[in-house]
Amino acid sequence: MAVEAKPKVFGYMPADTPPWGAMLSLGFQQVLTMFPATVLVAILTKFDVGVTLAASGLGTIIALLVATRRIPMYYGSSFSYIAVVMAAMKMYDPTCFNAKDTVYCAAGVQIVQVGIMGTAVFEILIGLLIMRVGKAALDQVLPPVITGSVAIVIGIALAGAALGMAGAHWGVALITLLVTVAFSVYLQGKGLLGMLPILLGAIVGYLVAIPFGLVDFARVDAAAWIQVPRFTLPAFGDPRAWASITGIALIAIATIPESTAHLYQMSLYIDQLAKELGKVPLEIKKLIGLNLVADGSDDLVVGFLGGCAGTNYGENNSLMAITRNYSVPVLMTAGVIAILLGFIGKLAALVNTIPVAVTGGLAIYLFGVIGMQGIALIQSEKVNLFDPRQLAVGAIILITGIGGNLALPNGYFPFQIPALFPDGIPAIVFSAICGIVLNLLFLILPPARFGVLERENINT
Hints:
The chain has one domain (about 20-445). The protein contains 20 helices and four strands. It has helices spanning about 20-45, 50-65, 80-90, 95, 105-135, 135-140, 145-155, 160-165, 170-185, 195-210, 220, 240-250, 250-275, 290-305, 315-325, 330-340, 345-350, 355-380, 390-405, 425-445, and strands at about 75, 310, 410-415, 425. Strands 1-2 form a two-stranded antiparallel ribbon. The chain has a two-stranded antiparallel sheet with strand order 3-4. The longest helix has 28 residues, at about 105-135.
């Protein structure tokens, strides 16, 4: 009786090294997947595109090495930091940042770099703390109602900026928005194309903008094919730079849960492949602390060089799940490719010709998604929104964060703190501080001490 042959299982575990041809093609796919969002953050915040690409590649390689090549992640620019970075740029380099014809503001970037490196230190310390005491202790101080609400604030507080950019040409912006949404919905599961709705939407918007005279190719013609990106050192000597540390670093409150969720997701995929290959599951989900130390290491690199604050990319994780390729050598190859792309001057110049209206259309969607992800986090963690404590923490974060950013001058609360916040406290940061302090108060003085019964969570 013939024995039916089992189908061959194909895929690469983190320690596997594919043949060179496969490694180059798979690495290029990773770069293509991270490219649209990574360069869009640089455009919105007026960072150098070449530096951002090169720093993304080097930061990824360093993070993989710090994680002892056990956690396959690619690091690109984080949208979560856009609001506070834009606020800092408007505050400390307003002439450059507010000028419509500028694409790079060196003085503002150097101040923000200090804040990004502060974020790196914060992430590393949190990672080391988790490795020491466990994640449950951290969840007491930063429960989902805080992290989710802060994520909502980060997205919705950027609504004014998104609409302001879209207002440069509403027709182009709305077409860009609609096609990007269509690509993200109808290309799901369509291989690599399904991973690139932002890139495809940007291309369509770009082509639509050309007949309206919104694209100027003069900058591309003037750029050299090969040029050194405009790397800058952090402005440690500028007293204003130290004020950016607290403001920017606190945004990690929202990115830490995101990074941890990505780790859990990757762990499930990798262990399933290991099972099918007859190998021992790696269970990288247990490496939460090490993962955050790797995140911080990436931000140390990008902060030092002048790139945008980073995070591990869910888009690249999804690509790895689809291709069943979790090879760390492939991700390192992608890092090298990104570094090389950073030195192509005409590529950076071409990216900088993307019209403001096109980025506005993309931003309406992307910023809204950030806010919705905060809601998703609160839902997935089954936060008891019938509990007055949870309601109070979330409500105060939302109103002070969103309302403060949209209604107060420059989005700053008028509470000046020497050295830390000499010009006032950014609304998003103020909202996070309020949420953390209020939650700590409830931990110190729990309602049960006063005979109050905890309300049942009907979400469980």
